[in-house]
Amino acid sequence: MTPDASQREAYGQTLVELGKENRDIVVLDADLRPSTMTSFFAKEFPERTFDCGIAEQNMVSIAAGLAASGKIPFASTFAVFAPGRCFDQIRMSIAQPHLNVKLVTTHSGLTVGEDGTSHQSLEDLALACSLPGFTVIAPADAIEATQAVRTAAATNGPFYIRLCRPKLPVLHDENYRFELGKAEVMRQGTQATIMAIGTRVVAALEAAENLGRDGIDCRVLNMSTLKPIDEAAIIKAANDTGAIVTAEEHMEHGGLGSIVARVLARNRPVPLEFVAIKDTYAESGSPADLLKKYGLTAGDIERAVRSVISRKKAG
Amino acid sequence: MARRIRRHIISMTGRAGSGHPGGSLSAVEIVSTLYFRVLKHDPQHPDWPERDRFVLSKGHSAPLLYAVLAECGYFPIDELASLRQINSRLQGHADRTCTAGVEMSSGALGQGLSFSIGIALAGRLDEQPYRVYTLLGDGECDEGQVWEAAMAAAHFKLDNLVAIVDRNGQQIGGWTCDVMELEPFTDKWQAFGWHTIEVDGHDFTQLIDAFEKVKTIKGQPTAIIAHTVKGKGVSFMENNPDFHGKAPDAEQVELALKELAD
Predict the structure, then answer these.
(1) A9, A56, A209, A283: which one is catalytic?
(2) What is the ipTM of this complex?
(3) pLDDT per residue over A239-263, tens digit each?
(4) pLDDT tens digits along A72-97
(5) What is the CATH number of domain A7-162?
(6) Which residues of chain A lie closer than 8 angstroms to B120, CB-CB?
(7) Distance of CA B32 to CAs A11, A278, B204, B233, B249, Å?
(8) Domain count of chain B?
(9) Using CA atoms, how far apart are residues A257 and A235, in angstroms rounded to an integer?
(10) Could you say which architecture CATH assigns to the domain A184-314?
(11) Is A231 a catalytic residue?
(12) Could you tell me which chain B residue has the CA closest to the CA of A45?
């Protein structure tokens, strides 16, 4: 079995490769290089690395100026600090002029763990998705993180890529090719569909496995591109399975669940359940304890699937 | 030319019925000096990679920038009449997606100096000879991001970056010293690692000299503190914060244009 792998490390290594391939790649950070692992790039290309200190607003506007001058800036910090801390700067310096800035953030969601509420980004996907023209991706493992970062470098326009702190099980092999805007079918199924993003994809697969033992046949989709969302895959899942559960390490408002609900409401309303943070802040704790207390485990997904299937039958 | 620009500003904002004449009028000599004497630029090729950049950080002075760009030939002067109208290329605040010659979408104050750092860093990486000139308002310097950028520009030793502060002493709420004290203002820029030059921002000779001097400063950015009068050139607008964000009415337009006649 492949050992767990770090999305951050994959990001750092991919930046170095990209830096060798393209001299227009530049990297910005806000005094978190050892954590975001842009330190690899900084070591290889110090002249193309700009540490802006603990000043995220300044960092993203500088990134915009670099992009306006033909550079391909990757700007990184923790997900809780961007877009949150510098939303207006992202809005006016990057999104409105549709500049080619890649915001890649790490330590997202609850699984940052013991650092607690101040460091747990549970609103960042909603903020990023609200920006016209932004592409928003939360990869499910290190291999997909590499692919997403490469795709962002090769695709003009602003990107928000959300990475996590802990190492994750590797769900893809080296031949995997991430397709922007396409949901990935991780498992076929007929009775319900679990749509998951980021760290919750592995939990969704575990839930589907457990449910399968009870004779409940679930499809699992990796919704790594949150914007633009793969509407066709959502509508197909609704048509094929008639019941959907979303799972994300994010507030229920404005994240994957909200976006899936919008697509279903417009096209094919079916029973839907949300595995997400329920309009609250969390606390310090180990990632495992937090996921359990705030209802984001494979077990929580299983319960949601049973509930949504019973609603489908009742309907 | 300064009078022509001022007449454009009055006519444009008067016709639009809204806009920011005060802070546009105060910076007429600064922006005119840059476009007509200092900047290497080509109105026929607004994207020329080697052009000097002018970044309007105080985006509410867009009427001034539009008037100067039109006089340079970036777009027809007739188009100035479309300011703030639906489907116009001349947005209420400067917008790089709409208007040829506009480098940055501004209007959310405090972002322009950071954006300019990005342009200056790119120029240095690419060994481009261009310089970046950024116009800030003094009230704008209430924004913390301005000082983040001030710190970073000095840290990165950006001697291809020049900040000009339109020190007209007023913001929407009145005198800057009453809303939020900025003094000792020049000392602040120096403390952040900048070379500073103070000028009368309505004196072309002083402005031209300052922009010449800037080219000799190595290893640090320069801030030109340009002392100006808000609403300059129109008696009833001078030092009157009411005209920060309010357009003149028809009668006031007539009076102002009379005062600004050649």
Answers:
(1) A56
(2) 0.97
(3) 999 999 999 999 999 999 999 999 9
(4) 999 999 999 999 999 999 999 999 99
(5) 3.40.50.970
(6) 65
(7) 47, 56, 9, 15, 26
(8) 1
(9) 14
(10) 3-Layer(aba) Sandwich (3.40)
(11) no
(12) B125
